[in-house]
Amino acid sequence: MPAPRSPDRLGLSASSSAATTKYVVVYERAEDGGWGAYLPDVAGVVALGATREEVAERIQEALDAYAAEMTSLGRGLPEPVAASGTVQVA
What we know:
CATH class: Alpha Beta
């Protein structure tokens, strides 16, 4: 298992370091019209919002807060391994 990397991850990206690592973000629209987002590689980092734009801001804030907490504990963030793609149905 690869060692955790120091904080600053994403197409969202956490602050502090010069290097940036990108994480996959999954956005899902709820039946009530709201939005949710999560990072498959960073368990527990989730966000909810009324719009896609709002949830995008909130997932970035959630990641930044998580990265700051990991830094304060002397830990890094996990290595990103998730990938995305699309498939077609006939």
